[in-house]
Each structure stands twice: as structure tokens, then as C-alpha cells.
Amino acid sequence: MSSERVSLVPAAGGRALSAPLMGHEPEPTLFDLSMTGRRSASFRTSDLPEWGPEELVPPELLAESPVALPEVSERDLVGHFTRLSHRQYSVDLGAYPLGSCTMKYNPKVCDEAAAARHFAAVHPAAPPSCTQGWLEVLVELEEMLCEITGMAAATLQPAAGAAGELTGLLLMRRYHEAAGEERHRVIIPDSAHGTNPASVTLGGYEVTTVGTNERGGVDLEALRAVLDTDVAGIMLTNPNTLGLFEEEIVEIAAAVHQVGGLLYYDGANLNAILGVVRPGDMGFDIVHLNLHKTFATPHGGGGPGAGPVAVSERLAELLPGPRPVRLADGTFSWERPSRSIGRLHSWHGNALVLLRAWTYLRLHGADGLREVAEIAVLNANWLKERLRGSYDIAYDRTVMHECVVSAKSLADETGLRALDVAKRLLELGFHAPTVYFPLIVKEALMIEPTETESPQTLAALGQALELIAREARQEGDASSARAAPRTTPVRRVDEARAARHLVATYDQRR
Amino acid sequence: MRAPFVPHTEAEVAEMLAFLGLSSLDDLFAAVPAAVRLAGGLDLPDHRSEADVTERLFELGEKNKPVGRSLVCFAGAGAYDHEVPAVVRSLASRSEFVTAYTPYQPEVSQGVLQAVFEYQTMVARLSGLEIANGSLYDGAAALMEGVNLAVAATGSSRVLLSTGVNPRWREVLATFSHGPGHDLVELPLRDGYTDFSAAGDEPAGAVVVAFPNYLGCLDDLRGARELADRTGARLLACYDPVASGLLRSPGSLGADVAVGEGQPLGVALSFGGPYLGLFSCRSKDVRRLPGRLVGETLDSEGRLSYVTTLRAREQDIRRERASSNVCTNQTLMAVTAAIQLGWLGTEGLQQVAIGSARAARYAKEALLRIDEVEAATAAPGFREFALRLPVEAELAVERLVEEGYLAGVAVREGYEGTDLEGTLLVAATERRTRQEIDGFAASLEKAIR
After folding, report:
1. What CATH number is associated with residue B140?
2. N or C terminus: fewer CB in 10 A for chain A?
């Protein structure tokens, strides 16, 4: 490698400093823009009899007054939502290194697939003769997800990761009940996502928390101490929320299986291991995937996602139904598993999200997916090393898809906290990492660059984070970062005030 | 590079590995025990070009029959063919909305936050209740969360559930009730109305009734309110947001919680998803509200701004004590609904509701003129109705596909053994014309001979 190479010189491309913001005034609401009598809507000419409301429904059920909605021109509607869109950070604008969220680039071809009439205008209750293409997509997606996870069968119904978790816990419950066993506890590491314990409760189980060892993995001795036949299973994220691979996963699996428990794999961090190792081969029985993370379906500002669940052979007949199936004659239909836990979704899951994931998987294939994992892990490790000296490294090992660093020393020395680092980073043109999570690391900054950020963007991000730490240390005070962000559409918002004086609709404004 | 969106050159990969003191990418995975590593790679085809994958998508798409001019839609059952204009699709596909994450950093998320605030306002008005959340997965999920709220608020896990509620939602509720252990008591339908006589006066946590119900009938919400008062339950109404353009809102008829499917508000049929669950409640229950809630506040310079609020309810803070595990929901669909409602305006929503009711009445009268076709229920409806046919409903649907009509949805699951089983549920929206309905009636008449 020639030393004159400049490939890792920071470049401006991955950050949003050039985003065109015209000003800092609030955008009025659509209700403020409304003018009585103005309109946009128009409809087909129906030639139907013009029956009045009282000829259509019983008069006592008629609304006393119409529901007031904004009355705006189409031009004003476009202006309003376009201006709102300019007050919003997004993956398309710049790097989005939110740990555990896998905010990679969302391919446009996947959006185009989902917008195509031949998929988007299909009614969910249309008979299989009208939906053969859709059913084939769903069956192929299930098959691909099973291969990627090392599982035997899958359901595509769960609409998000948390729904997938709850599905998994209900499968766990049904499995034990079918064996005539009543178990009450599910084990969760103290590094787990908050959805895990919440799902356990909704699944009708109690949470038993197990600690983390000095290498950032599950404390195997502590785990053995709480394992008995009252344990329904364990929920693990691997790599875990520290970005670390559970080195003792084989021993963990053996210990849990020995007491008859099941292993649940939280797929939030699956991106790190695509094509390298599969949950099924590690001993997991139930896996949920977040298609809006690993397979790049856009996150939509907080959904829609999709949280399919794949299971090993012994749980396949318990899966939710109806499931899409390939028949012997090569056509496709629906079928209910014999001992199904029941339906989880009004229809078949977030179908257009599933179609995007199918497209992503076909584009990547086996070789592409393996490379996704490799480069995601390479990026995270490069960034971790780049930040050494500026921040504390929480657990100093090779990380997987993300690294967790800590602003603890920085805070002790200068008063600058993780939240301030996050807000200052916004000024420097990057979205902030996840902060204060995982809970077991003080002043945590959880950074997941993903594989689609270039080395130059990564270098710019590293430089920005280093700059923030250096400013605070050299100037001996943190006032600059504490005042951040100054360049964003609004500055730090008063979250306590929002909760104290709840105004959650325009009509609650006084 | 084999992964199409990885920008790294081979030289850059080598340089980064050198910086890390590693000799190969495999070295990054040293922590993975050799015994479980995947030998030989995934058994999937290798990567393909966008052009190749697009060809395959066209091929698969051609195996579907979308609704439109060659398959006129009379199917509903929770998914309706309402007008969605170009402006809604255009604005809702702006990549700033599409590719954003959950607004954890409010300073750079004001766009999504404000759009959701506007959405919450419109849904609160449609439902006639004070508070609406920022959406849930779908109508079924909204029902499930509503029942959890009611059970937590009342301390009673007995749930009196009308069989007029969408049967797939009832099944979802039953699936998820297995965890917390709710006691679901189904109340039968008589002539399209819920029969409350079987409910008794024992304390209950929730009374759940749909208005309009799955059969399209305007069920008796007042009777449901009386039952809720007698049993100390919260009244949950499953409503249709489009119906609010014509009918009294669930809140004005006494509902404590209103849940619904938001698909009719600008979302394509989409083979069933992503849609969005509408959820509203009274202020007294706001601290049990599931999902995200956007509130108004000020920034450090006193400017009006928006932020997700009452966060202490949520799973990432409350963990095992949270009453809901919702994290990602359906924000983009909520933004879409806000845009659609902005396009409709006060009068447009009325036109959709009245236009749908007119088309439904005209269609029902036309179809009932056919010999041996009968109405399955007597109760007045809104834009949907069930018919008893002289042939199997599924057979009629198949035959009419050939004639260019999606005739409706067979009523079967959730109604086994009732007089409604095997009827055909037919829906009409403001998009149906006299010509289409006349053609549909003529084709059905032929198809059932």
C-alpha cells in the first residue's frame, strides 16, 4: 500500500452541512394555513343518484356537524409538507450512525418495486388466482430468511421487531404448554434492548436478568445459577448491544437446552453476521429479523418495519397462519399450520416492506450479503480505533457491526456529557449516535456506521467526534458543546415542558 | 465488490485492515467459534444486477391481478379502494420522510414530528376523543392495545367482544391475549346488531363493538355504552375514519377508546400492508396510551417545537413494567394519512363518505334485484353489506374475476356455524360508478346461474 494514498482523508460528502435551510422560523401547522372554502379534492364522476345523507343512514346517527379538517389548496399542501421535509434529517441526506438501528442506504429500486401497481394495487383478500406473484414473493422470502438464519420455517406477519419478539414468546409459551409444562421465567441479559423485557411481560412471563462479564458477554456462571426447569427460555442479541459477539454462545445454548429452555435470537444486530454464522447453527430455536434494519427497507421516520420470525423444525407447526405455501403443481396458496398460535396481523404482514426486502436480497445474493457483514464490521472497527484516545472504549475487543464508546472520562474532566457530544455532532453535519444505551455503560455513545458509508465519510465522522472531545479538553470547559446545536431548525427542546404541559393536538393549544 | 451499495474499493479495504493490524476480513470474526461458523457460504444465488432483478419483478408482477379498470374492486372487509391522488403519493414518498429514523433527536426531526402532531389532531377529531397516538401497526394491533389499556385501567380482564368486530382482528386479539391471559367473551350478532343479552352484569374490563361492523352494519353503540356502564368497563369502538364524514363519531356516541384501520386515509391496498392502526382515547387514559405521542414544547430560544412526549410510558424506559412493547410503528403511514386528510379537507371527507354510501346503496339495490340473492342482515349499513347467494361465495368470486370484477370477500373465518357463514361481503366506495355497478350486477346474475 502506497503511503501517498489519500483515500481516508475526510470528505464532506456523507454529512449534511450544505443542506438548504432558508431560515429558523417555525412552519405554521396545516390548520393555520386553512381558509374556509378552499379545496383540493376532486373525485370520479359516478352518475349515481344524489341521495342526501338522511336517505343513506338513520338520521339519529348522522354527524351533528362536519369534522373540521384543514382546507388548503394543493399548492399550499405541497408547500407545507415540502417545508416540513426540509426540517428533517434522513439517510438520504447524510450518515446516520445510530447504534442498533442499522441505518444503511435504502436502495431506490426497492421503493420502485413497492410502488408498482402490479404489487401495490392488489387487494389482500383477493383469491389466490389473483395473487400468485405475491405468494411466490412471500414464499421465496421465507425460504431466503430461513437459509440466512439456519431455520426451518418462518412467518412474515409481525409488523415490527417488537411484534416479532412477542410472537416468539407466544411460540415459546405454546411449545412448553404442548409439552405439558408450565414455566414462568425468561432470562434476559442486562445489556438487552428495552423491547425484550416489555415483550416478556406481555408474553405472560417474568423477567430474570443476568449480568455481563468483564469481556462484555453473558456471565455464564451467573446464567447457570439462575437456570432451572422454570425457565422457558433466554432472549439474546448476538452480537449484543455492546457490538460484541457472544464468545460462549455454544456453552450458553447447551446450558439453556439442558433445562429444557428455548433460545430466542433478537435479530436487531444480524447485519454483522450475514453469511458468516447463522443463529440456527449457534443453537437458537426462534429468531426475529428486522427487515427495516438488516435488509434496508426504509424506516419511514419510525415505521413501517417488518419483523418476520423464523423457527426450528420442532416449532414450525406452531407458527401463525395462514402461511403462503408452494404446492406440488408449482402454484401457490395459503395454509394454516396444524397447531398454529393464531393470526398476528390484520392481513399478511407489511407486504410492501417484505417486497422491498425480497428485492434487496436478490440484489445481494449469498456473496453480497457476506460482504455486507464484512464491511459493516470493518467500518465499526476502524471507527472504534479512530476514536481511541478521544473517548473510553467500553470493552476493548474486536467489535462487530457497532462500537460502544463512553464519554465518561470526558465528562469527568470537562463536564461534557454524551448528550452534549450528540448535539454538537448535529452541528457538524451528522446525525447523532444512540446515547445512554446500553444502560450498563456510563455516558454511552453507541455508533453503527453500516457498510454503505464510505471510508471518507467514516473519516469525517471520526474527525468530528475527535474535534468535539478536543475542544472540550483544550478549552477546559464544555460551554460550546453545551450550547449545541445552534444551526439546526430548532435548538435544544424542553422535553420536560412537553410532558408537564401536554399539548398533543392543535385543539389542546391555549 | 459484490454488494451493490458498498462503496469501498479493494485498496481502501486493505488500508483499513492495515490500520487495524489485521491481514484479512476473516480476522474480524475471530470471536465466532469455529464450530458454528458457516462453511461454504449461504445456499442462495449470488448477487444480481438491478436490471436483472427488475425483470424478475415484472415477471412476478404479471402473475398478480391488481384492482383497476380490468378488475373493478367491490372487495372491502377492512381494505378499501378509495381515491388517492398523485399529490399524496408524491409528498409521502419524499425521501426525507421515507428514510428518517424514529425522531430521537428532535432538533433534526421537526418535519416528521410536526406532521405526526397534525395527524394526531386530525385523528382525535375524526374519533371525537381528545387524544390520539402517532399510529400502531394496523387495526388489529390497535384493538389489542386498546384492550390492554382497558384491562389495565379497570383491573378486570373480562372482555366482552362483539362478533361484529372484524374476525381477523378478533383472532389477533385472541392470539395476543394468551400472554396476559384476558378472558374473551364473544357476543353474537342478531340481524347485524350485537346481542348484549348474553353479556350479563358481571364486572368487565372492556366492551368492544364495531361501528360500522364487519358486515357493514351500524351497530348499537348506545346499547354498548349502557353495557359498559353496567359492568364498569371501558367502551372500545372499532370505527371507520371515512364514516366520520357522515356519521356521528365514536366519541360522541360514548366510546372511551376508538380504534380503527387507517388504510382508507390515503394508503394503497398494498396486499394488506403497511397500513396503520388508529388509536384515540380520553385524556384520563393518556398515561396508559400505547405507542408514540408527539407533544408541543419550546426550544432554548423560546421557539415552538415538537418532541415525542410522555416517554416514561415506553418500553425503552419502563422495560418489563411497560404496558406495551411498541417501538417502531407506522409513522410514514401516519404522515401519509395527514397529507390525504389535508387534501380532502372538511368537504372532501364528506364527499368520500356520502359518495361511498350512495354507491353502496345503489349496488345493494341492484344486486338484490337478482333472483335468489338476499340481504344477510337487516340493520342499516354504510358502504358495505353481506349477501346470501345461491352458490358458494368463493365460487362467485372466482367466476367474476374472469368477468373483470373483484366481487367481494367470502364471510367464513370467525363466523363458522352462524347464518352469516358463506355470505358474500360487498363494498362500494366513492370510486364506483353507475356503469361499473350495473356491469357488476349483470355479471353476478350470469355467474350464479
Report:
1. 3.40.640.10
2. C
What's the pLDDT tens digit per position in B275-328? 999 999 999 999 999 999 999 999 999 999 999 998 877 777 777 777 788 888
Question: How many domains is chain B partitioned into structurally?
Answer: 2
Q: Which of B290, B308, B338 is the last residue of a domain?
A: B338
Judged by a CB distance cut-off of 8 A, whether residue B430 touches chain A is: yes
Task: Report the distance separating Cα A327 and Cα A1, nearest Å.
Answer: 55
- Which triple of cell numbers denotes residue B426? 360487498
For B274, which of A296, A352, A494 is closest by C-beta distance?
A352
- Asked if B57 lies within 8 A of A204 by C-beta distance, the reply is no
Q: Are B99 and B92 in contact (CB under 8 A)?
A: no
CA–chain centroid gap for A30, Å, is 30
Q: Which of B2, B324, B327, B335 to mutate to test the interface with A (most CBs of A within 10 A)?
A: B327
Helix, strand, or coil (residue B90)? helix
Residue B427: which CATH number? 3.90.1150.10
Identify whether residues B301 and B353 lie together within a single domain: no
Burial class of B398 by CB neighbour count within 10 A (0 to 12, 13 to 18, 19+): middle
Separation of first and last alpha carbons in chain B: 62
- Whether residue B230 lies inside any domain: the answer is yes
Q: Are residues B430 and B393 in the same domain?
A: yes
Class of the CATH-defined domain A373-497: alpha beta
User: Considering only CB atoms, which chain A residues are within 8 Å of B86?
Assistant: none
* Partners of residue B134 in chain A, C-beta under 8 Å: 302
A457 φ/ψ angles, rounded to the nearest 5 degrees: -65, -40
CA A232 to chain CA mean position, Å = 26
C-alpha span between B293 and B135 (Å, rounded): 9
What are the cell numbers at A306? 417488518
Say whether B351 and A362 touch across the interface (CB within 8 A).
Answer: no
Same domain flag for B206 and B272: yes
- The residue range of the domain holding B428 is 72-84+346-447
pLDDT in tens, A63-119: 999 999 999 999 999 999 999 999 999 999 999 999 999 999 999 999 999 999 999
Select from A63, A202, A370 the Cβ nearest to the Cβ of B247: A63
* ipTM of predicted complex: 0.98
Least Cα distance to A293 among A128, A118, A481, A91 occurs for: A91
Rounded Cα distance, A313 and A284, in Å:
11
Fold entry, domain A111-363: Aspartate Aminotransferase; domain 2 (3.40.640)
Instruction: Please check whether residues B361 and B239 belong to one and the same domain.
Output: no
Share of chain B above pLDDT 70, in %: 100
Do the bridges between strand A185-189 and strand A231-237 make them parallel or antiparallel, or are there none, so unpaired?
Answer: parallel
Task: Specify the pLDDT at position A9.
Answer: 74
